[in-house]
Write a structure and sequence with these properties.
509 residues, alpha+beta, four-stranded antiparallel beta sheet, 10 helices
């Protein structure tokens, strides 16, 4: 005789479909996490192979190899904290500055200081090599930006116009120098006749400016907003991105052979690194880090780019996209380093292994195969066995031992249908009642199980309400259950208020 089994409750599962964009960025595997002694204020990449990068933290700048992603040199010839560092496009020179009003230029191969520029009267917060790699621009707390000629070792121009400290510098193909400051203004400068050619208002203290690859678009970050401007239309605002919860601190962009279009990458104090599609201005992916993000950068390598993120805690995250088999590669020195091992000839499973004994599990029958019915009797679960013996108390205990919420609530539901729930809960001492109450306290706020568990809790209170004070453990669980139900009711009240406010706004519109 086939006995009926307890029907197990099934709840809809949340779809976890992963997009192609998410798979791409998840392909960046963490190589290592370097810990600095202080916050990481700047990350700068070279634009040519092997795409070395520099990391500024405390009173030193560490140079990393773009191939091995390991520290290669450390420059410590600084008196105080370094706030800004910039590598020349070929990685042969490094310009750095910080709390002192001096800009220093180093040769990365020998770590020798080859230039020292004095002229600022306050700390330097931003620095960048210009497009010709012969000039360096520096922005300072003295509200000015100075242009330095590296070969001639002299100051070319002083750009005045900001009313607060200059915190960001970049350049584009149509503007020589672009500066952003805490006066909420972003200015473009022409170095032929040093003067401001245009000004845009970001409406928040500017932390970062970035010229996008087209040359005509500019991204500015300040507060929790990122704004995209069209420079060819006189600084017209195209889009405002407000997806971050705290101030955005850094910007960079990336395009590769695996992506359609360019991605804008933004780091924020809310510990989120977000990737924006510049065609739709939507967030395609985001990565959460353990600490607020202060700086970020990504190499221009088309196949195996390196993503570096510096955090307030001093942690430095280094990730590199892994190679995949079958990917076309060029026979360059860089590609040979990351070339994956060719696949070996497929062989059968080793005798005695798990795969050996699972051969044929996924075999699909054909029309010529003969079907033999499996008449083997299925074994009953322990709670089903006790249920058919009308031993309701033992059935509930067996379900609780499975520790699966769906199984326990299904057995409770079956006992309610049989009017045996009160029988299963009666005549229990504190040790036997403890697992039942613990399960209720743990899962009573779950909407899938709340209806049954609330009914079960009411029966327990009616049965043991007069004697619950005799056990301190049961008493503590009942007090905790009361607090959880009170908090859940308060949450429902707040949600109803929010729904009412939304309906009121919708009706007014």
């Amino acid at each position: 005789m086939n006995l009926l089994r307890t029907p197990i409750r099934q709840h809809p599962k949340v779809s976890l479909r992963q997009t192609a964009e998410a798979r791409h960025w998840d392909g960046y595997k963490r190589i290592k996490v370097e810990d600095e002694h202080a916050k990481i204020s700047c990350v700068s990449f070279a634009k040519e192979q092997p795409f070395d990068f520099a990391v500024a933290a405390s009173a030193r700048v560490r140079l990393f190899s773009g191939q091995a992603c390991a520290p290669s040199k450390i420059i410590t010839r600084f008196k105080d904290n370094v706030h800004a560092a910039s590598l020349r496009s070929d990685g042969a020179m490094l310009a750095a500055a910080g709390d002192w009003p001096v800009v220093k230029v180093f040769e990365t191969q020998t770590k020798a200081q080859i230039r020292e520029f004095r002229g600022h009267s306050a700390a330097v917060q931003a620095i960048s090599f210009l497009q010709d790699d012969l000039k360096v621009a520096s922005g300072s707390d003295d509200k000015t930006c100075k242009i330095w000629d590296v070969p001639q070792q002299e100051e070319i121009a002083t750009l005045k116009g900001h009313t607060d400290c200059v915190r960001a510098i970049c350049n584009s193909s149509i503007t020589d120098v672009i500066t952003g400051g805490y006066d909420h203004k972003v200015k473009g400068w022409d170095l032929r006749d040093p003067k401001c050619t245009w000004t845009i208002d970001h409406e928040h203290p500017v932390e970062a400016v970035l010229a996008l690859p087209t040359g005509s678009l500019l991204a500015t970050a300040g507060g929790r907003f990122i704004k995209i401007w069209d420079l060819t239309s006189g600084g017209r605002l195209i889009q405002t991105l407000s997806n971050h919860q705290k101030a955005v601190t850094c910007l960079c962009h990336h395009s590769s052979d695996f992506l359609k279009g360019t991605r804008l990458i933004a780091g924020s104090l809310d510990q989120q690194l977000k990737f924006y599609d510049l065609d739709t201005f939507e967030v395609n992916h985001s990565i959460r880090y353990p600490s607020p993000i202060l700086s970020c950068g990504i190499s221009d390598h088309k196949k195996f780019p390196v993503l570096v993120v510096g955090m307030l805690s001093g942690a430095l995250s280094i990730k590199r996209r892994e190679a995949k088999l079958g990917l076309p590669q060029e026979d360059t020195k860089d590609s040979l380093l990351f070339r994956p091992t060719p696949p070996t000839t497929k062989q059968g499973p080793r005798v005695g292994s798990t795969r050996y004994y699972k051969r044929g599990v996924r075999y699909q029958p054909t029309d010529q195969d003969a079907f033999v019915a499996n008449k083997r009797k299925k074994k009953l679960q322990q709670y089903d066995y006790f249920m058919h013996k009308f031993q309701y108390k033992n059935a509930l205990d067996a379900a609780l031992q499975s520790a699966h919420p769906n199984v326990v609530t299904s057995v409770l539901d079956e006992l309610m249908q049989r009017e045996g729930l009160k029988i299963a809960l009666a005549d229990r001492d504190d040790k036997e009642l403890l697992p039942v109450l613990s399960f209720i306290v743990k899962h009573v706020t779950n909407p899938h199980h709340a209806d049954i568990l609330v009914h079960t809790a009411n029966i327990i209170i009616k049965l043991y309400g007069d004697v619950c004070r005799h056990s301190s453990v049961i008493d503590d669980l009942l007090i905790k259950l009361k607090g959880q139900i009170k908090a859940e009711l308060k949450l429902h009240e707040n949600m109803l208020e929010i729904v009412g406010s939304i309906q009121l706004l919708a009706s007014n519109n």
